[in-house]
Amino acid sequence: MLPRRLSARLKHLLAHSPAVVLLGPRQVGKTTLALEIAETRPSVYLDLEDETDRIKLSDPVRYFADHERELVILDEVHRLPELFQRLRGVIDRGRRHGKDHGQFLLLGSAAMDLLRQSGESLAGRISYLELGPFDALEVAPAALDTLWVRGGFPRSFLADNDDLSMEWRRDFIRTYLERDIPQFGSRIPAETLRRFWTMLAHNQSQIFNAAHLASGLGVDGKTVASYLDLLVDLLLVRRLPAWHRNVGKRLVKAPKVYVRDSGIAHALLGIRDKETLLGHPVAGPTWESFVTETLIAAAPDGTEAHFYRTATGTEVDLVLTLPGGLLWAIEIKRSSAPSVERGFHIACADLKAKKRFVVYPGHERFPLHADTVAIGLSGLARALQAEK
Predict the structure, then answer these.
(1) Are residues 125 and 160 in the same domain?
(2) With a threshold of 0.70, does the pTM exceed it?
(3) Is residue 136 part of a domain?
(4) Do residue 207 and residue 122 come from a single domain?
(5) What whole-number distance in Å separates Cα of residue 209 and Cα of residue 256?
(6) How far apart are CA 197 and CA 192, in angstroms?
(7) Domain assignment of residue 92, given as a range
(8) For burial by CB atoms within 10 Å, which of 22, 170, 248, 262 has the most?
(9) Distance CA 196, CA 311 (A)
């Protein structure tokens, strides 16, 4: 197993907050990370998908009182949403008894439900952390293309060969559609959602066109929007907003949308290996989404991510506004000999970007222009991490 970058951050939050929510899609490694934390302190772990563990919480106040001096880890906590109301009193009682941090670690796969339920009940008592798949800072530089092709879910990336990786990803997609998503209350037919998910993969990193997708599925635009909301909530798809501040030009307002894990996007499209991917039209767009996800994950807490595009086509692939207002403009190229067009410089001037980068598949850093630097993905991710 590879060590996770967020391990130190999670320990820090547990040392300063009564409760921490660790968000992430299923099979991303939340439980593994939580159990590693449990080995370092007195802890108790409950999997709320297990009926036996749910029965233990038939009287949650008493159970938590019995384990007041331990870290209580609740996996798949969305299965018992009524717990959040009880946790507030338990946390406050723990504070009165001198334990003001490290009481609960809550693991969940549905972002919006958990954020809403926990935010309403535990305001001021809870911290949040999102664990994504492996990223470019967690693997060796030589494995970067493998990470792009297979994605970062641990069992996919670490599989012995491409065929086993593809088999795991197909099973993951099927299980999500047929078992996991219905558990969240969705009544969308599995085959319909698969078609929508696959359409998003075909349109990776493109402007979201609800009418076009709705026509392909035979539904209306509002229905398509609800499908998108579900996949975004499950942390499987990212909706990257357009830059919306006034720059004196007509801006594109619709978001870009993409499947967050490039390996899942490739599996939806039947792309098994790097050779097949390089010959497919989606190679450039999935590289863009892969880079975007890595950089957002590496950026300091509080960073805002957008893309910039005017009605005339002037654009920047990724705009990161760091805490304090420092703005980085990032163009993403799959070519090993990257270049930028005049429109990128115009857009950077519109945005008043402080730093300008072009990310490419190589490892060297070199100037492309007086104020624009070509840099590899790992190098830029490390530069962002150093801003924290």
Answers:
(1) no
(2) yes
(3) no
(4) no
(5) 9
(6) 9
(7) 6-130
(8) 262
(9) 27
Within this chain, do residues 78 and 206 fall inside the same structural domain, yes or no?
no
152 and 289 share one domain:
yes
Query: How is residue 135 annotated by DSSP?
Result: -
| 194 contacts: CB under 8 Å, gap ≥ 6 | 173, 177, 268
**Would 1 be classed as within a structural domain?**
no
* CATH code for position 67: 3.40.50.300
Eight-state DSSP code of residue 353 = -
Residue 52 and residue 332: Cα distance in Å, rounded? 49
Shared domain for 188 and 297, answered yes or no, is yes
What is the pLDDT tens value at each position of the chain, 388 positions in all?
688 999 999 999 999 999 999 999 999 999 999 999 999 999 999 999 899 999 999 999 899 989 988 999 999 887 887 888 888 888 888 888 777 888 999 998 876 666 666 666 677 788 889 999 999 999 999 999 999 999 999 999 999 999 999 999 999 999 999 988 887 767 888 999 999 999 999 999 999 999 999 999 999 989 999 999 999 989 999 999 999 887 668 888 999 999 999 999 999 999 999 999 999 999 999 999 999 999 999 999 999 999 999 988 889 999 999 998 999 999 999 998 898 888 999 999 999 999 999 999 999 999 998 899 999 999 999 999 998 7
What's the domain count of the chain? 2
Residue type present at position 385: Q
* 3 state SS of 237: strand
- Radius of gyration of the chain, Cα coordinates, nearest whole angstrom: 22
